[in-house]
């Protein structure tokens, strides 16, 4: 346990808030903790009946490059992870799923951020027509799941949630 | 590409910096991007000759709970990922490795943070005597690698870098 003795609010933004806590450590000494507050997010590995998976490629400002990822997005206020997963799947790749099963819950960067990541496996896919939200630019496409799992094992996937999803899928689909 | 037209510095801290960029999107419209700058980090899956892996349990302020993780730490200025991995392995679990092989490079939260994560597999382990840095409180222990891989597959590992490391190790060690 690290008891908070004071909190300084640094920034309240659109997606993140930042604060610095004064904390009392196990030995009674004092330290500071920089904390990024995040609303949480979902990621969806959507697999078709013929074992293809959906991916998106989009520009990520923090790393100044395009990244290959599975569909994902942050939770709206009061939104359940399950509903968020269904919404993002429709918005980003135009699909609805008969089954949406949570296969992982994890923290992406627990050293400095509160972000929780819920990863879903979506199967029984059907096309739906949903408009992409304004200001979202991404390219959506499919890859054979087996090929994507090989990419994950060979170091060709550089996004943590996508790595976790594909490596778990390898076990689920015996790849 | 998202062209930065202005940058506002919000916070310069010990581990993170925060800025907000005004960016021009693909269609010429303007938006804002909140960016957490991070120095990058390493994580080490250290496996003994009899297939046990080292873990640490430590309190993580952003999520207000203890988390089971592999040894990890952030890069010091000018430090290579390889040197950082050797240093953290010694500091956190008191081991040196004959072989330290990078098995993943990924971004932990590319939507809002620049953090790069380098994951190493450490083998040929020998005990070393190194003092733990002040203010670091963690419990170190070993688990059979096969058991840890099962935990990762069953949802009992909630740290992203640890999940990636264990699921990649499953392929490497045929587990």
Automatic annotation (TrEMBL), chains A, B:
Q: Which top-level group of life is the source organism from?
A: Bacteria
Pfam families reported in the protein's UniProt record:
NUDIX
Tell me the cofactors it needs: Mg(2+)
* GO terms of molecular function: pyrophosphatase activity
Using the record's annotation, list all stretches that form the Nudix hydrolase domain.
Answer: 36-165
Provide the alphabetized UniProt keywords: Hydrolase
Q: Does the keyword Magnesium apply?
A: no
Gene3D superfamilies in UniProt: Nucleoside Triphosphate Pyrophosphohydrolase
Q: Which InterPro entries match?
A: Nudix_hydrolase, NUDIX_hydrolase-like_dom_sf, NUDIX_hydrolase_CS, NUDIX_hydrolase_dom
- GO BP field: nucleoside phosphate metabolic process; ribose phosphate metabolic process
The UniProt entry's sequence similarity note says: Belongs to the Nudix hydrolase family.
Q: Write down the PANTHER family for this protein, in alphabetical order.
A: NUDIX HYDROLASE DOMAIN-CONTAINING PROTEIN (PTHR11839:SF18), UDP/ADP-SUGAR PYROPHOSPHATASE (PTHR11839)
Name the UniProt record assigns to this protein:
NUDIX hydrolase
What is the organism of origin for this protein?
A: Dethiobacter alkaliphilus AHT 1
